[in-house]
TrEMBL record:
Protein name per UniProt: Glucose-6-phosphate 1-dehydrogenase
InterPro entries: G6P_DH (IPR001282), G6P_DH_AS (IPR019796), G6P_DH_C (IPR022675), G6P_DH_NAD-bd (IPR022674), NAD(P)-bd_dom_sf (IPR036291)
Residues annotated as binding NADP(+): G17, A18, S19, G20, D21, L22, T23, K24, R51, K164
Gene: zwf
Top-rank lineage group of the source organism: Bacteria
Keyword Cytoplasm: no
UniProt record similarity statement: Belongs to the glucose-6-phosphate dehydrogenase family.
Catalytic activity field: D-glucose 6-phosphate + NADP(+) = 6-phospho-D-glucono-1,5-lactone + NADPH + H(+)
Occurrences of domain Glucose-6-phosphate dehydrogenase NAD-binding (ranges): 14-203
Length: 507
C-alpha cells in the first residue's frame, strides 16, 4: 500500500481477455502510467491473449486508438512503451491452445529476461475463470515448489489476479476459491477490488490510525450510524444481458463486493502493523462479525429498486426493462439498500446503511459517519435546529474529507448554524487522485496483498447478503420499476431510514 516505489522484480504480465474493455480502458493505461513514472521493473513485458485475430502491431494500434488521451501527446513515448506489449491470438479456455501459449510465454520471458516470474491476469467473463485457472495449473508455468509469492528477487514467483465477479453466491465463491487453491497458494492470489485502489478508501486507514482526533470517537459510544453510498448516473450501458442474468443486480455487483469492502475498513480494529496479513486479519474479523439477516428480517432491512424511464442531468434515459438484453418483466435490482450490523464490542448496536444504484441523480461514492448528539442540550431554544455532527469521506468525485459541525452565526445573540471544514484532495495536493488500477497492478508486481481480498472476506461477504438475494428471488415485487432514472432511488429506501428516525445524506 502507499505511493508507488520502483520495483526490481522482473515480471511477465499475461492478460487473458486482452481484447476486452477492461484491458483497453484500464489495464494498459495503468501500466503505461506506471512505466512513465518509472515504477515498472526493468525486465518487464506484457502479453495479451484473446481469440480475436491481431498481430503485435495491430494490437498496439487497437489499444492506442481505443483511448489515445491515456497515452500523452508524446507519441514517441507510447511507441517506446508499446514495444513491450505483445499479443497472442488463442482461446485460453481450450487445452489445445496451451502448447502455443507456453511456447510464446517462454520465448518472451527469455527475450525480456523476466525469468520465471509470471503475473497472470484473468480479465475474462467469470464463466471462463475456472477453465483458464485449470489450464494454467496443468501447464509447465506453475510448478510444484514455486507456488508461493516471494519478496526476494532470487526466488521466482507466479501470481494470479482475478477480476470480479467472484462467484455469484456463497457456493460458487467457495468453489472458485477451491479451484484457485489447487493451483496457487493463497499468498499468490490477488482478488482485485478496484474500490480498494481508490485513494480516499486507502486514506481511511490514515484518517483513523494516524490521527488521535478520530479514533477515540470511532465507536458505539459516539457514532450514531454510518452511511455508505455509491450512486451512479449511468444505467447498465450495453451490459444488460450480464446485469440481468442470475449473477447480476446491484446487491451482487456493488454491495456484496465494493461496499462491504469499504465497510470493513471503516469498522476494522487497528492492525498490529501495516503488513498485509495484519491488515487482512482485522478485515476478516469484521466480515465474520457481519450479522447475517434472517429471511423474516429482510423486508425491514433491505430495499430493492429498479429504474423506470427518466432523465439524468437533462438527458433522457430509457427504463431498465427497455435496455438490450433485459427481460420485459425483469426483477433485477438496479438499486439496493441494506442495513447491516457489525457484532463487535466496538460497534454494539450501530447500524451501517449501504446503498447503491444505477441511473440515479448524481454520481457519488461517500462514507458519512453520523455522530450522536451531545449528552445534554445547552442551547435549548435552538434544539430543534441542531444537526448531527458528520464526518464525510468523499471517495469520488470531489475527493476529500469534510467535517460538519455547529457554529455560531456572527453578530449579537446566539444563532447556530452548521458549518463545514473541508479537506479538498485536489486543492491540497494540486493533483487528481491516481487511477486505482495503477496502484493495484503495482502492488501485484511487488507482491503486496494489502489491497486484495482474502478468500474468507469473500465467503463471509456472500453469507451476509445471500438471505436478501434469496428473499428477493422468492418474493417477486409487483411495483417494479419503482424509481425514475435521475432520482435518488425508491421511496422505500427513505422509508427504511425513516423507520429508524434517520435520513439519507443527499447533499
Ligand atoms: N470493463 C470494466 O470496466 C470492468 C470489468 N471487470 C471484470 O473484468 C472482466 C473482463 O471484463 P471486460 O473487459 O469488460 O469484458 P469484455 O467482454 O469486454 O472482454 C472479455 C474478453 O474475453 C474474451 N473472450 C470472450 N469470450 C471468450 C471465450 N469464449 N473464450 C476465451 N476468451 C473469450 C474476449 O476476447 P475475444 O472475443 O477476442 O476472445 C475479451 O478479450 C470481467 O470479469 C468483468 O466483470 C471488472 C471491473 C470493471
Ligand atoms: O465494479 C463495478 O463498478 C462500477 C462502478 O465503479 P466506479 O469506480 O465508477 O464507482 C459499476 O459501474 C459496475 O457496474 C461494477 O461492476
Amino acid at each position: 500500500m502507499g505511493m508507488p516505489t520502483p520495483t526490481n522484480q522482473n515480471c511477465l504480465l499475461v492478460i487473458f481477455g486482452a481484447s476486452g474493455d477492461l484491458t483497453k480502458r484500464k489495464l494498459i493505461p495503468a501500466l503505461y502510467a506506471l512505466w512513465r513514472n518509472g515504477t515498472l521493473p526493468e525486465s518487464f513485458a506484457v502479453v495479451g491473449i484473446a481469440r480475436s485475430d491481431y498481430g503485435d502491431e495491430a494490437y498496439r494500434e487497437l489499444l492506442y486508438d481505443f483511448n489515445p488521451s491515456a497515452y500523452d501527446e508524446d507519441a514517441s513515448k507510447w511507441a517506446e512503451f508499446s514495444q513491450r506489449v505483445h499479443y497472442l491470438s488463442a482461446d485460453s479456455t481450450k487445452a489445445e491452445a496451451w502448447p502455443e501459449i507456453e511456447r510464446r510465454l517462454c520465448g518472451l520471458s527469455q527475450q525480456y529476461k523476466t525469468g520465471d516470474n509470471v503475473l497472470f491476469y484473468l480479465s475474462l467473463a467469470p464463466q471462463f475463470f475456472e477453465p483458464v485457472i485449470r489450464h494454467i495449473g496443468q501447464s509447465g508455468l506453475v510448478t510444484e515448489g514455486r507456488r508461493y509469492c516471494s519478496l526476494t528477487p532470487e526466488r521466482p514467483w507466479q501470481r494470479i489476479v482475478i477480476e470480479k465477479p467472484f462467484g455469484s453466491d456463497p457456493g460458487s465463491a467457495v468453489k472458485l476459491n477451491q479451484v484457485l487453491a489447487e493451483v496457487f497458494d493463497e499468498s499468490a492470489i490477488y482478488r482485485i477490488d478496484h474500490y480498494l485502489g481508490k485513494e480516499l478508501v486507502q486514506n481511511m486507514m490514515v484518517l483513523r490510525f494516524a490521527n488521535s482526533l478520530f479514533e477515540p470517537i470511532w465507536n458505539q459510544r459516539y457514532v450514531d450510524h454510518v452511511q455508505i453510498t455509491a450512486s451512479e448516473t449511468v444505467g447498465v450501458e450495453g451490459r444488460g444481458s450480464y446485469y440481468d442474468s442470475p449473477a447480476g443486480g446491484a446487491m451482487r455487483d456493488m454491495v456484496q463486493s465494493h461496499l462491504l469492502q469499504v465497510l470493513s475498513i471503516v469498522a476494522m480494529e487497528p492492525p498490529v502493523s501495516l503488513a498485509a496479513d495484519d491488515i487482512r486479519t482485522e478485515k476478516i474479523k469484521i466480515f465474520k462479525a457481519l450479522r447475517v439477516p434472517t429471511a423474516s428480517e429482510v423486508p425491514e432491512i433491505a430495499v430493492r429498486g429498479q429504474y423506470g424511464a427518466g432523465a439524468v442531468s437533462g438527458v433522457s434515459v430509457p427504463a431498465y426493462r427497455d435496455e438490450d438484453g433485459v427481460a420485459a418483466d425483469s426483477q433485477t435490482d438496479t438499486f439496493a439498500a441494506m442495513k447491516l450490523k457489525v457484532d463487535t464490542w466496538r460497534w454494539g448496536s450501530v447500524p451501517f446503511y449501504l446503498r447503491s444504484g444505477k441511473a440515479m441523480a448524481e454520481k457519488k461514492t461517500e462514507i458519512v459517519v453520523y455522530l450522536k448528539p451531545t449528552p445534554h442540550v445547552l442551547f435549548r431554544e435552538q434544539a430543534q435546529k441542531l444537526k448531527a455532527n458528520q464526518i464525510l469521506i468523499s471517495i469520488q468525485p470531489d475527493e476529500g474529507i469534510r467535517l460538519r459541525f455547529e457554529g455560531k452565526v456572527p453578530g449579537p445573540g446566539m444563532q447556530i448554524k452548521d458549518v463545514v471544514m473541508d479537506f479538498d484532495y485536489v486543492k491540497q495536493w494540486e493533483a487528481s487522485p491516481p487511477d486505482g488500477y495503477a496502484t493495484l497492478l503495482h502492488d501485484c508486481i511487488r507482491g503486496d496483498q494489502t489491497l486484495f481480498k482474502h478468500r474468507d472476506e469473500i465467503e463471509c461477504a456472500w453469507d451476509a447478503v445471500q438471505p436478501v438475494i434469496d428473499y428477493w428471488h422468492n418474493n417477486p415485487q409487483d411495483d417494479l420499476p419503482n424509481y425514475n432514472a435521475g432520482t435518488w432511488g425508491p421511496s422505500a429506501s427513505d422509508i427504511m431510514m425513516a423507520r429508524d428516525g434517520r435520513y439519507w445524506h443527499n447533499f
